[in-house]
Amino acid sequence: MSASRSFVTVFPTAEIQALHWWLVADGALEAKGCDADPLLAAGLKLPSVEDEPVAHIALMPTPLALVRWHDPLDDMTVQQALAAARLAAQSSSLDRENLHIAAVVDDTGQAVTASVGKDIVANGLLQLQALGIDPDVIVPAGWLFAPQDTIVAEADFGFEKLLRAEKMIAPDEPSLRAHLIGDNRVTVLPEASVDRALADAVDNATLNLRCGAFAKKVQAHMTAQQRRLLGWLAAAAVVLSLLIPVVQLVKYHWAAADAQAVALAAAEPVIGAVESVEEADRRLDTRLISENRGNIAFSVPASALFSAVQQTQGVSIERLSYRKDGTVFAALTAVRNEDINPALVALQNAGFVITATPRTDATGSSKADVTVRAP
């Protein structure tokens, strides 16, 4: 967790009404208290409207969470060691179906588990969420202290006293002291040490019961600065998306202008200087028509020839070709020469210049070799 502030509360049980809380800012304890509404008492907003993220840590009371150290197993990966530790913790419980287990490897490389009832975690989370608190971490309170070799330390959190040794976290009950520590001397930690441990809770809360079925759902959180940056990035993306077609349009315009300039330069020796491609096209068409060249040199007379033949019964086109001199040549055939004449008359009436040479083939059919030129 990366946050400049953290908020520590006691994990609630059914008996707890007011919760102890500690507010940490920039690594130092800023305020603490015990209230029915910890967020309000600490002057914090709900997480959804906070200007910056606040790490929420809940301390599980020692009587509710059993912490065990497990013997290391040789030739096992970290994940295998943690899985074996969970199985060992579960086999030692009398209520296996209702058991929630968290596991971690400590600084010495030994697997450690914390076991607590599922119903306790579920009910406590509901109580915290009703207060607007959704903790990032649930950690046994005694886990915040580093063990000191053979020394047994007593820590008073206000809501409980606990004993912490190298491989022990237990409630400080007078009737249990002799059984737990024997004749060992107990060192009472000063209040400043307890406050220091709470201030460092974000870094030391590694044994996290907020895992498995109770893992916190990850929610994206953005600061005001990040939201502004995202807004600027979105605006920049919109501007870029609009600039891309504009730039392409400008490039196409420049390319078209260059192509027109090349076309006009190529046309100038033929038709003279002109100001636009449209004018050059008109002049070129006019010149081609006057010289009986261009696209209409074949298409127009050929079209007129086909139209005349279709309107004349008994006449068909046997062969059609285009000559270099700009005339269309066609070989017409009919039963009699008189049958071909109406087609030729139709072409002349349409204004085409024609020549016709009649002949007869070996079968006796009438033929006519016809040339057609556009007027």
Question: Can you walk me through this structure?
Answer:
With 375 residues, the protein is α+β, with helices and mostly antiparallel strands. The chain folds into three domains: 5-221, Nucleotidyltransferase, domain 5 (2-Layer Sandwich); 238-289; 292-373, Gyrase A, domain 2 (2-Layer Sandwich). 38% of the residues lie in helices and 26% in strands. It is built from ten helices and 16 strands. The strands form four sheets. Strands 3-2-1-4-8 form a five-stranded mixed sheet. A four-stranded mixed sheet has the order 11-10-9-12, covered by helices on one side. Helix 7 (224-271) packs parallel to helix 8 and helix 9 (296-310) packs across helix 10 (337-349). The longest helix is centred in the middle third of the chain and has 48 residues, at 224-271. The mean pLDDT is 84.
